[in-house]
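Supplementary Text 2. Reproducibility record for the structural model of the 253-residue chain.

All settings were left at their defaults, and a single model was retained for analysis rather than an ensemble. We include the record here because the model underlies the residue-level annotations in Supplementary Table 4.
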Amino acid sequence: MNFLRSLAHVLWMAITVVPWALFVVVASYLVSSTRLYWMCVGWLRLAVNSGTWILGIENRIQGLENLPQGSKDPAVLLVKHQSTWETFVMPVIMPHPLAYVFKKELLSVPFFGWAMGRMDMIHIDRKQRSRAFAKVVQQGSRLMQEGVWVIMFPEGTRIPRGQKGEYKSGGARLAIAAGVPVVPIAVTSARCWPTKAFIKTPGVVDISIGRAISSEGRSADELMLEVETWIESEMHRLDPEAYPEAQSVVAGH
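Retained model, structure tokens:
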């Protein structure tokens, strides 16, 4: 049954993404970037809702009150990355437009990548590290001044359930350079949507938003360590079954 559900969801996404992407490409010449963004969020909301209807995946969100409240208050969101699910969900649940930082190769993905290329987001060439980071700071600072939040996955790639990747300091460095806070976010998406897996299972994805952390007077490594510590501790709390070793240590004490 889970295989059939997963197949149906993939087909639904494939069928809807083509007209959506073509619409976005055309609309990008006619409407503002902000209007275009919220049009795209409409399709992402459809993707998330179809994940609930077809796959049986629901979201349980806590900590929305920890987000900056002003209409122009800036932030860098640093999110645990386990699957595609959170890339769909974050724009749907956030009150501000988001700008993803992503590798430019994604722009070549038919339809989806073409649509992303028409949006005001930050695509970089990872081979040109210093130039890429300079672009992140320049474009990210401009966007945050306009009320757009920058979202990054500090581990850089999807990490299997119960594991921890290497937290890179790019998000902290951006926040320090722009003088804005970071918001750590833990997500248990791999509980239902395993990393790089085709078959998904029904269940609840917990999304926990931590308190904003000031970047003022902080070093990038120090700030990222605080983000990493909070996210990984929260992951253990939200999804204890994914960390049996930690549970056995607690039981032993």
